[in-house]
Amino acid sequence: MALFKRRAAAGKPGEWYYCLKHATVEEGPQCRAADRLGPYGSREEASHAMETARERNEEWREDPRWKDEDA
Q1: Please, are residues 49 and 37 in contact by the beta-carbon 8 Å criterion?
Q2: What pLDDT score does 44 carry?
Q3: What is the dihedral of CA 6, 8, 11, 15, to 10 degrees?
Q4: Residue 45: left if φ>0, alpha if ψ -120 to 50, beta else—which one?
Q5: Cis peptide before 13, with omega less than 30 degrees from 0?
Q6: pTM for the predicted model, two decimal places
Q7: How many angstroms separate the CA atoms of 45 and 61, rounded?
Q8: Which of residues 12 and 55 earns the better pLDDT score?
């Protein structure tokens, strides 16, 4: 007998996620949290998750507040 039961991922209808493992859009969390991005407000937003992440990473790389270089 297992000491801990695995709980189903809780989510709300209308929450969309992008699964990194399967490269698919999911309604509600179907895969584990470490393998997904979201929640997003729409299927369309979730389908562009990787593009959004790339854009945000580039913005952070270029942000002068995060540069470790000596001025």
Answers
A1: yes
A2: 97
A3: 110
A4: alpha
A5: no
A6: 0.72
A7: 23
A8: 55
